[in-house]
Amino acid sequence: MVLAHDAGPTDVALIHETIGENLLKTVSRVPHEEALVVPYQGVRLTYAEFAAEVDRVARGLLALGLGRGDRIGIWSPNNAEWVLIQYATARIGAILVNINPAYRTSELEYALNQSGCRFLISAPEFLTSDYRKMVAEVAPLVASLERTLFLESDDWEALLAGSDDVTQAELEALAGGLEPDDPINIQYTSGTTGFPKGATLSHVNILNNGFFVGEMCRYTAADRVCIPVPFYHCFGMVLGNLACTTHGATIVVPGARFLPEAVLETVSSEQCTSLYGVPTMFIAALEHPDADEYDLSSLRTGIMAGSPCPVEVMKRVISDFNMTEVTIAYGMTETSPVSTQTAPDDDIERRVSTVGRIHPHVEVKIVDPDTGRTLQRGESGELCTRGYSVMLGYWNDPARTAEAIDADGWMHTGDLATMDAAGYVNIVGRIKDMIIRGGENVYPREIEEYLYTHPEVVDAQVVGVPDVKFGEEIMAWVVRRGDSNLTADELTDYCRGKIAHFKVPRYIKFVDDFPMTVTGKVQKFRMREQAIGDLGLHDAADIESA
Predict the structure, then answer these.
(1) More exposed terminus of the chain, fewer Cβ within 10 Å: N or C?
(2) Residue 474: which H helix or E strand, with range?
(3) Whole-model pTM?
(4) Domains and CATH numbers, the chain
(5) What's the per-residue H, E or C state across 260-275?
(6) Which residues contact 85 (CB under 8 A, 6 or more apart)?
(7) How far apart are CA 457 and CA 481, in angstroms?
Protein backbone atom coordinates (compact mmCIF):
# COMPACT_ATOMS: atom_id res chain seq x y z
CA MET A 1 0.00 0.00 0.00
CA VAL A 2 1.19 3.50 -0.88
CA LEU A 3 0.46 6.57 1.20
CA ALA A 4 -1.39 9.52 -0.36
CA HIS A 5 1.66 11.78 -0.13
CA ASP A 6 3.72 13.27 -2.94
CA ALA A 7 6.40 15.90 -3.49
CA GLY A 8 6.95 17.91 -6.65
CA PRO A 9 10.18 17.98 -8.68
CA THR A 10 13.01 20.27 -7.62
CA ASP A 11 15.22 20.19 -10.72
CA VAL A 12 14.25 23.79 -11.61
CA ALA A 13 15.39 26.06 -8.77
CA LEU A 14 13.09 28.44 -6.95
CA ILE A 15 13.46 32.09 -7.92
CA HIS A 16 14.85 33.99 -4.95
CA GLU A 17 14.24 37.50 -6.25
CA THR A 18 11.82 40.33 -5.75
CA ILE A 19 9.11 40.86 -8.33
CA GLY A 20 10.85 44.06 -9.42
CA GLU A 21 14.19 42.32 -9.98
CA ASN A 22 12.51 39.58 -11.98
CA LEU A 23 10.64 42.07 -14.17
CA LEU A 24 13.88 43.89 -15.03
CA LYS A 25 15.47 40.59 -16.10
CA THR A 26 12.56 39.95 -18.43
CA VAL A 27 12.87 43.46 -19.86
CA SER A 28 16.54 42.85 -20.59
CA ARG A 29 15.62 39.67 -22.52
CA VAL A 30 12.61 40.90 -24.50
CA PRO A 31 12.44 44.71 -24.36
CA HIS A 32 10.49 45.06 -27.60
CA GLU A 33 7.89 42.31 -27.06
CA GLU A 34 4.45 43.45 -25.96
CA ALA A 35 3.94 43.24 -22.21
CA LEU A 36 0.48 44.74 -21.67
CA VAL A 37 -2.40 45.14 -24.12
CA VAL A 38 -5.74 46.61 -23.00
CA PRO A 39 -7.76 47.23 -26.17
CA TYR A 40 -10.73 48.82 -24.44
CA GLN A 41 -8.42 51.51 -22.99
CA GLY A 42 -6.23 51.85 -26.06
CA VAL A 43 -3.16 50.68 -24.09
CA ARG A 44 -0.35 48.79 -25.81
CA LEU A 45 3.05 48.68 -24.06
CA THR A 46 6.26 46.81 -24.84
CA TYR A 47 8.24 45.40 -21.92
CA ALA A 48 10.59 48.38 -22.01
CA GLU A 49 7.65 50.79 -22.01
CA PHE A 50 5.83 48.79 -19.34
CA ALA A 51 8.82 48.82 -16.98
CA ALA A 52 9.23 52.57 -17.50
CA GLU A 53 5.57 53.16 -16.62
CA VAL A 54 5.83 50.89 -13.58
CA ASP A 55 8.82 52.89 -12.33
CA ARG A 56 6.98 56.14 -13.00
CA VAL A 57 4.10 54.99 -10.78
CA ALA A 58 6.58 53.68 -8.19
CA ARG A 59 8.38 57.03 -7.99
CA GLY A 60 5.01 58.78 -7.71
CA LEU A 61 4.13 56.63 -4.72
CA LEU A 62 7.53 57.32 -3.13
CA ALA A 63 6.95 61.03 -3.61
CA LEU A 64 3.82 60.70 -1.49
CA GLY A 65 5.89 59.24 1.35
CA LEU A 66 4.86 55.63 0.77
CA GLY A 67 7.36 52.80 0.87
CA ARG A 68 8.39 49.44 2.21
CA GLY A 69 5.78 47.78 4.41
CA ASP A 70 3.08 50.41 3.87
CA ARG A 71 -0.31 48.99 2.96
CA ILE A 72 -1.82 50.39 -0.24
CA GLY A 73 -5.35 49.31 -1.05
CA ILE A 74 -6.66 48.88 -4.59
CA TRP A 75 -10.40 48.81 -5.24
CA SER A 76 -11.00 48.54 -8.93
CA PRO A 77 -12.06 46.23 -11.74
CA ASN A 78 -9.50 45.12 -14.32
CA ASN A 79 -7.63 47.86 -16.17
CA ALA A 80 -4.11 48.85 -17.17
CA GLU A 81 -3.63 50.92 -14.02
CA TRP A 82 -4.28 47.84 -11.84
CA VAL A 83 -1.37 46.01 -13.46
CA LEU A 84 0.96 49.01 -13.18
CA ILE A 85 0.09 49.42 -9.50
CA GLN A 86 0.68 45.72 -8.83
CA TYR A 87 4.25 45.94 -10.07
CA ALA A 88 4.92 49.46 -8.76
CA THR A 89 4.00 48.55 -5.18
CA ALA A 90 6.21 45.47 -5.41
CA ARG A 91 9.02 47.64 -6.75
CA ILE A 92 8.99 49.84 -3.62
CA GLY A 93 8.18 47.07 -1.14
CA ALA A 94 4.70 48.34 -0.29
CA ILE A 95 2.05 45.73 0.50
CA LEU A 96 -0.79 45.76 -2.02
CA VAL A 97 -4.16 45.10 -0.38
CA ASN A 98 -6.58 43.64 -2.92
CA ILE A 99 -10.16 44.74 -2.29
CA ASN A 100 -13.03 42.86 -3.91
CA PRO A 101 -14.89 45.12 -6.37
CA ALA A 102 -18.16 43.70 -5.05
CA TYR A 103 -17.52 44.88 -1.49
CA ARG A 104 -20.02 47.21 0.13
CA THR A 105 -19.23 49.83 2.78
CA SER A 106 -18.98 47.54 5.81
CA GLU A 107 -16.65 45.15 3.99
CA LEU A 108 -14.52 48.00 2.65
CA GLU A 109 -14.26 49.49 6.12
CA TYR A 110 -13.21 46.13 7.57
CA ALA A 111 -10.50 45.47 4.96
CA LEU A 112 -9.00 48.96 5.24
CA ASN A 113 -8.99 48.89 9.04
CA GLN A 114 -7.82 45.32 9.43
CA SER A 115 -4.88 45.83 7.07
CA GLY A 116 -4.09 49.34 8.31
CA CYS A 117 -4.12 50.90 4.83
CA ARG A 118 -2.44 54.32 4.54
CA PHE A 119 -3.43 54.88 0.95
CA LEU A 120 -6.32 53.73 -1.24
CA ILE A 121 -6.41 53.68 -5.04
CA SER A 122 -9.99 53.35 -6.24
CA ALA A 123 -12.04 53.35 -9.41
CA PRO A 124 -14.67 56.13 -9.28
CA GLU A 125 -17.45 53.60 -9.86
CA PHE A 126 -18.13 50.07 -11.02
CA LEU A 127 -21.45 48.74 -12.33
CA THR A 128 -24.06 50.07 -9.87
CA SER A 129 -21.53 50.94 -7.15
CA ASP A 130 -20.63 54.59 -6.58
CA TYR A 131 -17.15 54.14 -5.12
CA ARG A 132 -16.65 57.85 -4.49
CA LYS A 133 -19.74 57.99 -2.32
CA MET A 134 -18.84 54.78 -0.51
CA VAL A 135 -15.27 55.90 0.18
CA ALA A 136 -16.55 59.24 1.50
CA GLU A 137 -18.73 57.32 3.95
CA VAL A 138 -16.01 54.91 5.06
CA ALA A 139 -12.85 57.05 5.12
CA PRO A 140 -13.65 58.87 8.40
CA LEU A 141 -13.98 55.46 10.07
CA VAL A 142 -10.47 54.30 9.08
CA ALA A 143 -7.86 55.97 11.28
CA SER A 144 -4.89 54.77 9.23
CA LEU A 145 -6.21 55.99 5.87
CA GLU A 146 -4.46 59.22 4.87
CA ARG A 147 -5.57 59.66 1.29
CA THR A 148 -7.59 58.17 -1.58
CA LEU A 149 -6.61 58.45 -5.24
CA PHE A 150 -9.36 57.97 -7.81
CA LEU A 151 -8.55 56.54 -11.21
CA GLU A 152 -9.94 58.17 -14.35
CA SER A 153 -9.38 61.58 -12.76
CA ASP A 154 -6.75 64.26 -12.27
CA ASP A 155 -5.56 62.24 -9.26
CA TRP A 156 -3.82 59.73 -11.49
CA GLU A 157 -2.11 62.41 -13.58
CA ALA A 158 -0.99 64.11 -10.37
CA LEU A 159 0.54 60.85 -9.14
CA LEU A 160 2.48 60.47 -12.38
CA ALA A 161 3.58 64.11 -12.32
CA GLY A 162 4.85 63.66 -8.76
CA SER A 163 7.28 61.02 -10.00
CA ASP A 164 9.57 63.86 -11.13
CA ASP A 165 10.29 64.59 -7.46
CA VAL A 166 12.04 61.23 -6.97
CA THR A 167 15.05 60.19 -9.03
CA GLN A 168 15.50 56.79 -10.62
CA ALA A 169 18.61 56.35 -8.49
CA GLU A 170 16.56 56.83 -5.32
CA LEU A 171 14.07 54.20 -6.50
CA GLU A 172 16.85 51.75 -7.32
CA ALA A 173 18.46 52.29 -3.92
CA LEU A 174 15.22 51.49 -2.12
CA ALA A 175 14.40 48.51 -4.38
CA GLY A 176 17.87 47.08 -3.81
CA GLY A 177 17.23 46.86 -0.07
CA LEU A 178 14.11 44.73 -0.36
CA GLU A 179 14.07 41.03 0.52
CA PRO A 180 12.33 38.31 -1.53
CA ASP A 181 10.62 36.99 1.61
CA ASP A 182 9.07 40.37 2.44
CA PRO A 183 5.26 40.47 2.52
CA ILE A 184 4.00 42.06 -0.69
CA ASN A 185 0.29 41.30 -0.96
CA ILE A 186 -2.79 40.83 1.24
CA GLN A 187 -5.79 39.06 -0.24
CA TYR A 188 -8.98 38.71 1.75
CA THR A 189 -10.55 35.27 1.58
CA SER A 190 -14.32 35.11 1.49
CA GLY A 191 -15.25 32.64 4.18
CA THR A 192 -18.82 31.50 4.67
CA THR A 193 -18.82 32.65 8.28
CA GLY A 194 -16.99 35.30 10.27
CA PHE A 195 -14.84 38.15 8.99
CA PRO A 196 -12.63 37.70 5.91
CA LYS A 197 -9.04 36.68 6.59
CA GLY A 198 -6.13 38.54 5.00
CA ALA A 199 -3.86 35.96 3.42
CA THR A 200 -0.42 37.57 3.39
CA LEU A 201 1.90 36.62 0.52
CA SER A 202 5.55 37.37 -0.25
CA HIS A 203 7.51 38.02 -3.45
CA VAL A 204 8.75 34.40 -3.28
CA ASN A 205 5.22 33.08 -2.80
CA ILE A 206 3.54 34.62 -5.82
CA LEU A 207 6.53 35.14 -8.13
CA ASN A 208 7.40 31.45 -8.09
CA ASN A 209 3.82 30.32 -8.33
CA GLY A 210 3.28 32.49 -11.39
CA PHE A 211 6.51 31.18 -12.91
CA PHE A 212 5.69 27.50 -12.44
CA VAL A 213 2.13 27.99 -13.71
CA GLY A 214 3.64 29.54 -16.83
CA GLU A 215 6.07 26.65 -17.15
CA MET A 216 3.18 24.18 -17.03
CA CYS A 217 1.44 26.16 -19.80
CA ARG A 218 4.73 26.20 -21.76
CA TYR A 219 4.72 29.97 -22.08
CA THR A 220 7.31 31.83 -24.13
CA ALA A 221 7.54 35.42 -25.33
CA ALA A 222 5.35 34.34 -28.26
CA ASP A 223 2.33 33.73 -26.02
CA ARG A 224 -0.54 36.17 -25.62
CA VAL A 225 -2.72 35.43 -22.60
CA CYS A 226 -6.33 36.64 -22.47
CA ILE A 227 -7.17 37.32 -18.80
CA PRO A 228 -10.88 37.99 -18.12
CA VAL A 229 -10.64 36.81 -14.49
CA PRO A 230 -10.37 39.54 -11.80
CA PHE A 231 -6.94 40.90 -10.93
CA TYR A 232 -7.94 41.32 -7.30
CA HIS A 233 -7.80 37.52 -7.05
CA CYS A 234 -4.75 35.27 -7.42
CA PHE A 235 -6.14 33.84 -10.66
CA GLY A 236 -5.73 37.20 -12.37
CA MET A 237 -2.65 38.72 -10.76
CA VAL A 238 -0.57 35.54 -10.24
CA LEU A 239 -1.63 32.89 -12.76
CA GLY A 240 -2.24 35.73 -15.19
CA ASN A 241 0.11 38.67 -14.80
CA LEU A 242 3.07 37.01 -13.07
CA ALA A 243 2.96 33.92 -15.29
CA CYS A 244 3.26 36.31 -18.23
CA THR A 245 5.99 38.61 -16.97
CA THR A 246 8.22 35.76 -15.77
CA HIS A 247 8.18 34.40 -19.36
CA GLY A 248 8.01 37.56 -21.45
CA ALA A 249 4.48 36.73 -22.60
CA THR A 250 1.77 39.35 -23.22
CA ILE A 251 -0.94 40.25 -20.71
CA VAL A 252 -4.16 40.87 -22.68
CA VAL A 253 -7.08 42.41 -20.79
CA PRO A 254 -10.44 41.99 -22.59
CA GLY A 255 -12.47 44.27 -20.35
CA ALA A 256 -13.12 45.71 -16.91
CA ARG A 257 -15.24 42.65 -16.15
CA PHE A 258 -16.10 39.38 -17.82
CA LEU A 259 -18.36 39.66 -20.85
CA PRO A 260 -18.33 36.62 -23.16
CA GLU A 261 -18.56 38.64 -26.36
CA ALA A 262 -15.64 40.86 -25.35
CA VAL A 263 -13.54 37.79 -24.57
CA LEU A 264 -14.32 36.14 -27.91
CA GLU A 265 -13.61 39.37 -29.79
CA THR A 266 -10.32 39.97 -27.94
CA VAL A 267 -9.05 36.42 -28.45
CA SER A 268 -9.83 36.75 -32.14
CA SER A 269 -8.48 40.26 -32.78
CA GLU A 270 -5.37 39.91 -30.59
CA GLN A 271 -4.66 36.33 -31.70
CA CYS A 272 -4.40 35.12 -28.11
CA THR A 273 -2.77 31.76 -27.56
CA SER A 274 -4.13 31.21 -24.05
CA LEU A 275 -7.45 31.88 -22.33
CA TYR A 276 -8.31 31.80 -18.63
CA GLY A 277 -11.60 31.39 -16.84
CA VAL A 278 -13.68 29.66 -14.23
CA PRO A 279 -16.08 27.02 -15.58
CA THR A 280 -19.04 29.42 -15.64
CA MET A 281 -17.06 31.81 -17.86
CA PHE A 282 -16.20 29.09 -20.33
CA ILE A 283 -19.82 27.93 -20.33
CA ALA A 284 -20.99 31.48 -21.12
CA ALA A 285 -18.49 31.79 -23.98
CA LEU A 286 -19.34 28.37 -25.38
CA GLU A 287 -23.05 29.15 -25.25
CA HIS A 288 -22.74 32.62 -26.81
CA PRO A 289 -24.96 32.61 -29.93
CA ASP A 290 -22.18 34.06 -32.11
CA ALA A 291 -19.31 31.95 -30.74
CA ASP A 292 -18.85 30.17 -34.08
CA GLU A 293 -18.28 33.46 -35.89
CA TYR A 294 -15.02 34.29 -34.08
CA ASP A 295 -11.63 33.03 -35.20
CA LEU A 296 -10.21 31.24 -32.18
CA SER A 297 -7.66 29.20 -34.11
CA SER A 298 -4.76 30.97 -32.38
CA LEU A 299 -5.66 29.39 -29.03
CA ARG A 300 -3.67 26.38 -27.86
CA THR A 301 -3.76 26.47 -24.07
CA GLY A 302 -5.26 28.16 -21.03
CA ILE A 303 -6.35 27.49 -17.49
CA MET A 304 -9.70 26.46 -16.10
CA ALA A 305 -9.80 26.81 -12.32
CA GLY A 306 -11.61 28.43 -9.41
CA SER A 307 -14.19 25.69 -8.94
CA PRO A 308 -14.63 22.07 -10.04
CA CYS A 309 -14.46 21.83 -13.82
CA PRO A 310 -17.31 19.85 -15.42
CA VAL A 311 -16.03 17.09 -17.66
CA GLU A 312 -18.37 17.93 -20.54
CA VAL A 313 -17.37 21.60 -20.45
CA MET A 314 -13.69 20.67 -20.54
CA LYS A 315 -14.25 18.47 -23.59
CA ARG A 316 -16.05 21.29 -25.43
CA VAL A 317 -13.30 23.80 -24.61
CA ILE A 318 -10.77 21.44 -26.18
CA SER A 319 -12.87 20.74 -29.28
CA ASP A 320 -14.72 24.04 -29.88
CA PHE A 321 -12.05 26.52 -28.78
CA ASN A 322 -9.00 24.64 -30.09
CA MET A 323 -7.48 24.63 -26.59
CA THR A 324 -5.82 21.25 -27.01
CA GLU A 325 -3.26 21.99 -24.29
CA VAL A 326 -5.69 23.52 -21.77
CA THR A 327 -4.78 22.79 -18.16
CA ILE A 328 -6.71 22.46 -14.94
CA ALA A 329 -5.20 24.19 -11.91
CA TYR A 330 -6.13 23.71 -8.27
CA GLY A 331 -5.21 25.73 -5.23
CA MET A 332 -6.30 28.38 -2.78
CA THR A 333 -5.33 31.96 -2.00
CA GLU A 334 -3.38 30.81 1.06
CA THR A 335 -1.09 28.73 -1.19
CA SER A 336 -0.29 31.50 -3.68
CA PRO A 337 -2.52 29.81 -5.11
CA VAL A 338 -1.70 26.72 -7.24
CA SER A 339 -0.66 23.40 -5.69
CA THR A 340 -1.51 20.98 -8.51
CA GLN A 341 -1.95 21.35 -12.25
CA THR A 342 -2.48 19.08 -15.22
CA ALA A 343 0.17 19.06 -17.94
CA PRO A 344 -0.44 19.76 -21.63
CA ASP A 345 0.66 16.25 -22.54
CA ASP A 346 -1.59 14.55 -19.98
CA ASP A 347 -4.15 12.42 -21.77
CA ILE A 348 -7.67 13.81 -22.10
CA GLU A 349 -9.04 11.54 -19.39
CA ARG A 350 -6.53 12.86 -16.85
CA ARG A 351 -7.24 16.45 -17.86
CA VAL A 352 -10.99 16.11 -17.57
CA SER A 353 -11.15 14.01 -14.42
CA THR A 354 -8.32 15.29 -12.16
CA VAL A 355 -6.60 18.50 -11.10
CA GLY A 356 -3.23 17.10 -12.08
CA ARG A 357 -0.12 16.39 -10.10
CA ILE A 358 1.87 18.29 -7.56
CA HIS A 359 3.70 21.49 -8.56
CA PRO A 360 7.49 21.84 -8.22
CA HIS A 361 8.85 22.47 -4.72
CA VAL A 362 5.47 21.65 -3.13
CA GLU A 363 4.25 18.69 -1.06
CA VAL A 364 0.72 17.36 -0.85
CA LYS A 365 -0.85 14.72 1.36
CA ILE A 366 -4.38 13.44 1.95
CA VAL A 367 -5.31 12.98 5.61
CA ASP A 368 -8.20 11.80 7.72
CA PRO A 369 -9.79 15.13 8.72
CA ASP A 370 -10.61 13.81 12.18
CA THR A 371 -7.31 12.15 13.12
CA GLY A 372 -4.76 13.77 10.81
CA ARG A 373 -3.50 10.34 9.75
CA THR A 374 -2.14 10.18 6.19
CA LEU A 375 -4.45 7.96 4.15
CA GLN A 376 -3.75 5.41 1.45
CA ARG A 377 -3.89 6.38 -2.20
CA GLY A 378 -7.45 6.15 -3.45
CA GLU A 379 -8.96 7.05 -0.08
CA SER A 380 -10.85 10.32 0.35
CA GLY A 381 -9.68 12.83 2.93
CA GLU A 382 -8.55 16.42 3.49
CA LEU A 383 -5.88 17.75 1.17
CA CYS A 384 -2.93 19.45 2.88
CA THR A 385 -0.15 21.46 1.19
CA ARG A 386 3.36 22.40 2.32
CA GLY A 387 6.20 24.31 0.66
CA TYR A 388 7.33 27.73 -0.58
CA SER A 389 3.78 28.58 -1.67
CA VAL A 390 2.18 28.52 1.78
CA MET A 391 1.31 32.07 2.87
CA LEU A 392 3.22 33.93 5.56
CA GLY A 393 -0.01 33.89 7.59
CA TYR A 394 -3.25 35.80 8.00
CA TRP A 395 -2.50 39.49 8.51
CA ASN A 396 -2.48 40.33 12.24
CA ASP A 397 -4.41 37.14 13.03
CA PRO A 398 -2.11 34.56 14.65
CA ALA A 399 -5.01 32.55 16.07
CA ARG A 400 -6.63 31.83 12.73
CA THR A 401 -3.21 31.33 11.15
CA ALA A 402 -2.52 28.57 13.67
CA GLU A 403 -5.87 26.97 12.86
CA ALA A 404 -4.97 26.77 9.16
CA ILE A 405 -1.23 25.96 9.25
CA ASP A 406 -0.13 23.22 11.63
CA ALA A 407 3.14 23.03 13.55
CA ASP A 408 4.80 21.11 10.70
CA GLY A 409 3.97 23.78 8.13
CA TRP A 410 1.05 22.00 6.46
CA MET A 411 -1.77 24.19 5.16
CA HIS A 412 -5.10 22.46 5.78
CA THR A 413 -7.26 23.30 2.77
CA GLY A 414 -10.68 22.07 3.87
CA ASP A 415 -11.00 20.33 0.48
CA LEU A 416 -11.80 16.65 0.18
CA ALA A 417 -9.57 14.86 -2.31
CA THR A 418 -8.13 11.56 -3.47
CA MET A 419 -4.72 10.74 -4.93
CA ASP A 420 -4.28 7.88 -7.38
CA ALA A 421 -1.32 5.56 -7.85
CA ALA A 422 0.31 7.92 -10.36
CA GLY A 423 -0.03 10.94 -8.05
CA TYR A 424 -2.97 12.59 -9.81
CA VAL A 425 -5.27 14.43 -7.41
CA ASN A 426 -9.04 14.61 -7.70
CA ILE A 427 -11.07 17.11 -5.69
CA VAL A 428 -14.30 15.47 -4.57
CA GLY A 429 -15.75 18.37 -2.60
CA ARG A 430 -15.42 20.63 0.39
CA ILE A 431 -15.54 19.15 3.89
CA LYS A 432 -18.28 21.66 4.70
CA ASP A 433 -20.16 20.85 1.46
CA MET A 434 -20.25 17.11 2.03
CA ILE A 435 -23.82 15.88 2.50
CA ILE A 436 -24.61 13.14 4.99
CA ARG A 437 -27.90 11.55 3.93
CA GLY A 438 -29.14 8.73 6.14
CA GLY A 439 -25.58 7.90 7.17
CA GLU A 440 -24.26 7.93 3.59
CA ASN A 441 -21.52 10.43 2.72
CA VAL A 442 -22.52 12.16 -0.53
CA TYR A 443 -20.12 14.36 -2.48
CA PRO A 444 -22.01 16.96 -4.56
CA ARG A 445 -19.37 16.88 -7.31
CA GLU A 446 -20.30 13.29 -8.25
CA ILE A 447 -23.93 14.21 -8.79
CA GLU A 448 -23.07 17.44 -10.62
CA GLU A 449 -20.84 15.57 -13.04
CA TYR A 450 -23.64 13.17 -13.88
CA LEU A 451 -26.23 15.92 -14.32
CA TYR A 452 -23.89 17.65 -16.80
CA THR A 453 -24.20 14.65 -19.11
CA HIS A 454 -27.88 15.43 -19.77
CA PRO A 455 -28.02 17.19 -23.16
CA GLU A 456 -30.41 19.86 -21.87
CA VAL A 457 -28.36 20.75 -18.77
CA VAL A 458 -25.92 23.66 -19.11
CA ASP A 459 -24.82 23.83 -15.49
CA ALA A 460 -25.70 22.21 -12.17
CA GLN A 461 -24.86 22.67 -8.50
CA VAL A 462 -25.84 20.36 -5.67
CA VAL A 463 -26.37 21.24 -2.00
CA GLY A 464 -27.73 19.50 1.07
CA VAL A 465 -30.88 20.72 2.78
CA PRO A 466 -32.26 19.67 6.18
CA ASP A 467 -34.56 16.65 6.32
CA VAL A 468 -36.34 15.15 9.31
CA LYS A 469 -36.03 11.54 8.15
CA PHE A 470 -32.56 11.43 6.58
CA GLY A 471 -30.85 14.37 8.32
CA GLU A 472 -30.09 15.91 4.92
CA GLU A 473 -31.59 15.58 1.46
CA ILE A 474 -30.11 16.27 -1.96
CA MET A 475 -31.09 19.40 -3.85
CA ALA A 476 -29.91 20.27 -7.37
CA TRP A 477 -29.95 23.76 -8.84
CA VAL A 478 -30.00 23.39 -12.62
CA VAL A 479 -29.52 25.78 -15.54
CA ARG A 480 -31.33 24.45 -18.62
CA ARG A 481 -30.09 24.91 -22.17
CA GLY A 482 -31.83 27.57 -24.28
CA ASP A 483 -35.58 27.02 -24.53
CA SER A 484 -35.49 23.60 -22.88
CA ASN A 485 -38.67 22.51 -21.08
CA LEU A 486 -36.90 19.81 -19.11
CA THR A 487 -38.91 18.95 -15.98
CA ALA A 488 -37.81 17.76 -12.57
CA ASP A 489 -39.49 14.38 -13.12
CA GLU A 490 -37.62 13.90 -16.40
CA LEU A 491 -34.30 14.79 -14.83
CA THR A 492 -35.00 12.50 -11.88
CA ASP A 493 -35.82 9.65 -14.25
CA TYR A 494 -32.51 10.34 -16.00
CA CYS A 495 -30.72 9.74 -12.70
CA ARG A 496 -32.57 6.66 -11.50
CA GLY A 497 -30.67 3.49 -12.13
CA LYS A 498 -27.59 5.44 -13.22
CA ILE A 499 -26.41 6.78 -9.87
CA ALA A 500 -27.02 5.35 -6.38
CA HIS A 501 -30.57 5.91 -5.15
CA PHE A 502 -29.40 8.03 -2.22
CA LYS A 503 -27.64 10.40 -4.66
CA VAL A 504 -30.74 11.09 -6.77
CA PRO A 505 -31.84 14.68 -6.02
CA ARG A 506 -35.01 14.91 -3.97
CA TYR A 507 -35.45 18.56 -4.95
CA ILE A 508 -34.68 20.23 -8.27
CA LYS A 509 -34.70 23.99 -8.74
CA PHE A 510 -34.42 25.44 -12.23
CA VAL A 511 -32.56 28.76 -12.31
CA ASP A 512 -30.90 31.12 -14.78
CA ASP A 513 -27.74 31.43 -12.69
CA PHE A 514 -26.25 30.82 -9.25
CA PRO A 515 -25.25 33.17 -6.43
CA MET A 516 -21.54 33.79 -7.00
CA THR A 517 -18.52 35.74 -5.87
CA VAL A 518 -16.92 38.20 -8.30
CA THR A 519 -14.34 35.52 -9.17
CA GLY A 520 -17.06 33.16 -10.34
CA LYS A 521 -17.10 30.84 -7.35
CA VAL A 522 -20.53 29.47 -6.59
CA GLN A 523 -21.71 30.37 -3.08
CA LYS A 524 -23.31 27.13 -1.99
CA PHE A 525 -23.98 28.40 1.51
CA ARG A 526 -26.26 31.06 0.00
CA MET A 527 -27.98 28.45 -2.12
CA ARG A 528 -28.59 26.35 0.97
CA GLU A 529 -29.93 29.34 2.93
CA GLN A 530 -32.28 30.32 0.11
CA ALA A 531 -33.43 26.74 -0.40
CA ILE A 532 -34.29 26.34 3.27
CA GLY A 533 -36.42 29.44 3.08
CA ASP A 534 -38.10 28.40 -0.16
CA LEU A 535 -38.79 24.85 0.91
CA GLY A 536 -40.12 26.01 4.26
CA LEU A 537 -42.86 27.91 2.42
CA HIS A 538 -43.87 24.82 0.43
CA ASP A 539 -45.19 26.96 -2.38
CA ALA A 540 -42.12 28.30 -4.19
CA ALA A 541 -43.17 28.09 -7.83
CA ASP A 542 -39.75 27.27 -9.19
CA ILE A 543 -39.07 24.34 -6.86
CA GLU A 544 -40.29 20.99 -8.07
CA SER A 545 -40.17 18.14 -5.58
CA ALA A 546 -39.14 15.00 -7.38
Answers:
(1) N
(2) strand 471-480
(3) 0.86
(4) 16-419 (3.40.50.12780), 435-545 (3.30.300.30)
(5) HHHHHHHHHHHCCCEE
(6) 57, 72, 74, 96, 121
(7) 6
